[in-house]
Amino acid sequence: MEPTTQAIEHVVRHPNYILEGTYLVASILFILGLKGLSHPDTARRGMFLAEAGMAAAIIGTFFHQDLRFFSWIIAGLILGSLVGLGFAVWVPMTAMPQRTALSHAFGAIAACLVGVAEFLMHGAELSLFTRSALGLEVMLGALTTTGSLIACGKLQGTIRGTPVQFKGQQYVNLLIFFAMLGCFIYSLNHPDATLIFYAMAVLGLLFGVMLVVPIGSADMPVVMSLLNSYAGLAAAATGFVLGNNILIIAGTLDGFSGFILSILMCKAMNRSINNVLFGGFGSAKAHATAGSGGTMHEISLDDAAVRLAYANKVVFVPGYGLATAQAQHAVRELASALEERGVTIKYGIHPVAGRMPGHMNVLLAEANVPYSELYEMEQINPEFPSTDVAVVVGANDVVNPDARDNPNSPIAGMPIIEVDRARCVIVLKRGQGRGFSGLENPLFFKDVTSMLYGDAKVTLAHLAQEIKNV
Ligand code: NAP
Q1: How does 418-457 read in b/e, with b if 16+ C-beta sit within 10 Å?
Q2: Mean pLDDT in the chain?
Q3: What does the pLDDT read at residue 63?
Q4: 8 Å CB contact between 256 and 235
Q5: Could you tell me the distance, in angstroms and rounded to a whole number, from the CA of residue 431 to the centre of ligand 1?
Q6: N or C terminus: fewer CB in 10 A for the chain?
Q7: Which residues of 239-256 are buried (b: 16+ CB within 10 A; e: fewer)?
Q8: Please, what is the end-to-end C-alpha distance for the chain in angstroms?
Q9: Beta pairing partners, 313
Q10: Residue 369 — very low, low, confident or very high, per pLDDT cuts 50/70/90?
Q11: CA 337 to ligand 1 center in whole angstroms
Q12: Catalytic residue among 219, 254, 397, 402
């Protein structure tokens, strides 16, 4: 027999080679996917590579030598695909943060259940190391499940978004945490103590709830990113329990990238992880109003259109209001109308504008805004002195000059997009509503600023129409 035929036959007879091969390909695709996601230009390709990696991992798993009950696996695949499809079709872009939270909950409950099943089937036979990984998997999986469900409820508005706090809360949380840890240590040495193991899982579920309820809804993106990292670590622990390399690699990537993202978001808000987790930001206490004063100057639609039409350079600064108004297509339409008149258009994107990382990039990409027009905060800030009109579209905190000028402000030190350095600022918002921090924004009272009230989508559409008529 030819050596190549022999080799192929050998591989076919040993499906584990196929399994390990596809897992290797999947791991490489995950790493390349993650790298692609680090830049808007390559994000789409990164997503596609990650999807291909996931497909390779699923296909590879079918070659696992211990695999039984194919019908159950196929049923799970169909059910999971239907839920995923439902998410893709029915969940609007604005609800993406809560959808992501729900996905974390699904991933975490899967890790938790695999851990419980493994404990029930093989608990006594497992080594101490594997039992430790299994305990971690169940604890992290359980707390991530309920934590993510609470985060989802808060973002959706089905659970009160303001921090739920009571006296001695942190002591109660510590008690739950140490009780869970106690059960974990006990079950390490007593693999037959099923009740204690279940108690550990239940305490994990309870701890997830207690960890997230004291946090305000607007801090949920940071919390979710942390929970994402816990879900990843739970998956990596599952990998150690099952001896599954792809779970170890993908879980570790997920765990650490989630953690790094949380740190980056905190940095962009000039806050610490501790402040996010235990600071109760968004509670009545934190709503103390910073100094403002003066009057707001309103501008008519016609006047705003004239200012824009005769500008040389216009910078759009989108915020959460753009997402709620779904105004991404309208802003693009207005920008195109201005570009036709020879106006230079740029978009200034704050790293925490909106309610999730990359929120604005996703929305603007959906409206086919060219990446070359998107500028990060550090790039756009030096441009404002030469900008004729800065148009703030439903942004508030990320353009609040108090963060820069008032050391006593609760958001002092948060880097902002410095629209107030432009020659003229037009703010599009519906009324006197405040931003996520609940603070007054002195930008709205500045002489350079004009307020254009109304829903951002409607206002932008009217402006585009007016520009065409100027
Ligand atoms: P923001 O401070 O929440 O302000 C949004 C503004 O949009 C509001 O003042 C609101 O005023 C206006 N608005 C709402 N609906 C509108 C509509 N249909 N049309 C026009 N305007 C509308 O938003 P931001 O400036 O984007 O700041 C984001 C905040 O979230 C920051 O404080 C950030 O720290 C926080 N955060 C973000 C992340 C993240 O990952 N992105 C994570 C954690 C925390 P009216 O009600 O008057 O219209």
Answers
A1: bbbbbebbbbbbeeeeebbbbbbbbbbbbeebbbbeebbb
A2: 88
A3: 83
A4: no
A5: 13
A6: N
A7: bbbbebebbbbbbebbbe
A8: 81
A9: 344
A10: very high
A11: 26
A12: 397
* 425/396 Cα distance (integer angstroms): 13
pTM: 0.77
Which of 217, 355, 440 to mutate to test ligand 1, by most ligand atoms within 8 A of the CB atom? Answer: 355
Confidence class of residue 279 from pLDDT cuts 50, 70 and 90? low
Using the predicted structure, report yes or no on whether residue 287 has a pLDDT greater than 60.
no
Residue 353 contacts residue 391 (beta carbons within 8 Å)? no
Taking CA atoms only, the protein residue closest to ligand 1 atom 1 is 435
pLDDT tens per residue across span 41-84: 788 899 999 999 999 998 888 888 777 778 888 898 899 999 98
Distance from the Cα of residue 436 to its chain's centroid: 16
Say whether 397 is catalytic.
Answer: yes
Which helix (H) or strand (E) segment holds residue 388: the answer is none
Query: Residue 262 is inside which H or E element, if any?
Result: helix 245-268
Q: Which of 228, 396, 427, 428 to mutate to test the pocket of ligand 1 (most atoms within 8 A of CB)?
A: 396
